[in-house]
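so i finally got all the pieces together for this one. its two components total, 663 residues if u count the protein bits. some of the lines might not be protein, just check the labels. i wanna see the whole assembly predicted at once instead of chain by chain like last time, that was a mess tbh
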Amino acid sequence: MTIRQKILGSAALVFLATAGITIGATLTLVQGEYIRIEASNVRNDTARAVDAVGNRIDQLALKIPDWSSWDDTYEFINDHNPDYLESNLQPESLQSLAINFMLFYDAKHKLVASEAVNIGTGDNIAIPPELLKALQPDGTLLAQDDKDAHEGLLATSTDPLLVATRPILRTDNTGPVRGTLVFAQYFNQDAIARLSQLTHLDLTYQPVKTTSCAKGSTCVHTVDPQTIIGSQVIDDIYKQPILEAHVTEPRTIFQETRRTLAFYLAVILTAGLISLITAFITVNQIVRQDRIIRLKNEFFSIASHELRTPLTAIRGNSVMLMQSYGPKNDAEFMAATADIHEASVRLIAIVNDFLDLARLERGQMPLQVTAVNLKDPLQVVVKQLQSVATSKQLYLKSEVPDSLPLMQADPERIQQIIYNLAGNALKFTTQGGVTIKAEIRGHNVVVLVADTGRGMTPAEQKKLFQSFEQSREQDATIGSGLGLYISKLLVERMGGGIWVESSEPGKGTSLAFSLPLDLTTQE
Amino acid sequence: MAKILVVEDDPLMSRMYQKIFTFEGYEVIMAADGQEGLDKARETKPTLMLLDVMMPKLNGLQVLEKLKLDPETKGIPVIMLTNLAGEQDAESALTKGAIKYIIKSEHDPKEVADMVKEILAGYTRGDIPGGGSAPAAPAA
């Protein structure tokens, strides 16, 4: 599995997991909440449908007292005066009251008079036997006293009836009760259509089944994603279940929620996809850059190894010419040989820098860290660079106190770092010289290499420790331009740091690096 | 006269060592690969061998092992020649009986000749280390 697959795989996995959790949470939380709201709405509407029936019954009941608490009716029950019937009990009367049946019972529960019409046509119709049965002397609907009133639904073989009964009293509502007046009206499809119109609900009323909703509660039934039904049982005049009100509603909220969620998920998926594509492009770039760096390092490493052998031969042979074989009396020949030798030495130094760089960047630089006295490598460097300093008429001095404790580092590498720093300082100094100092700061030894050279601008300081950076205005014939960068990598590998301590154009530069104190030799 | 066997596949390097050792007054025998080096060691019984690590056919480490197994050749002091990449092999050669290793690019021919001279001086005094001695301090 390549690193690219690993990164993209885990990115895709993280994205899918996040998307899955988000979708799941949204569905259960948001959609769940909307489904609850929807159900609650349907319950309310169903309750309204039930209330609407109750309202119809109340309206019916309100119409009776005009007739039942009326001295004329009160008299009629006693005297059966046909004039009363003639002037009051006409089909038109029932039509204007919007009732189908009007029945007069006397105190002995005997039917005295009745009228039954079709409200639409005014034709006489039959009184359903169920109504007559309910109003028989042994029934509970006929008035026993002046407060005995009933109203409610009554089942028939066809449509149910809305029924209201009231005791027949005098106009001032005094008794004794002379009988019972009954109003009834079919609760048929026309009535239901009117209710539907009034309530703005899709209403139906169906006979009660065994599967119906429990008495007193409202049930919500989801038919499909488009339709939801609320149902509630309605009792008859005897408090027994007779009808089930059904309210059918479109699932507008649910559909809207779905659309919103779908949009929302599309946004998440698109964002995820864009992130993945971006990640893919970025990973590709990183992998490519990484490959280029690796190839560069490999190239440096191989090229340097291959260069070293012929360079060694050039240097070895030129040394032999200078030391042993050459015609000592031929000054020009000897001078040319010396140039060849110097060129080879310089080339080997560059090749060595390349090799160091490749090894450091690949983390393959072997280090032999031990307790080091700074004075030892410092002495070697001062000796190595003394001739350079002298030839430029500069001083090169070390001011390190004898009491300086040991540090933890690879002595050879310290030597290389100081050589790079001091060599660099000498290169850019034309007057004065270079001083190497050391002091303790915290748990570190800090080595300072200060020159009296031209100093650096802040911009130059920033680029100082980067690879292949060299001040181009100056004589840059020595070195690969990698010395300070290699020093930085070396110091960092040994657990220290390197920085510009101070630098000002015209006043010289002081570079510093730190290495950890050797705590094993401390008290 | 001390005989030096130089086993080195790169003609540039082997000619350079040939020149300096000839100049220093040794008899120099050359071999261009491991097998030839092994054969010439058995045949000529050199006083000292310079043995390159990385070579075709038999590499320096294999040659060293065979030399040390053969009673006829196991007494010959061997200096391993290496480049930076072969440094670790060269170090392991010390445990197999080489007395020293030299990183070629870090020493001029004269320095190598001086090292050989020093070792041979010790050899005539009979205190050649049998192997496992400290490697030469790399040049500064």
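The first helix of chain B runs from residue 11 to 23.
Chain B is about 40% helix and 15% strand.
anyway lmk what u think
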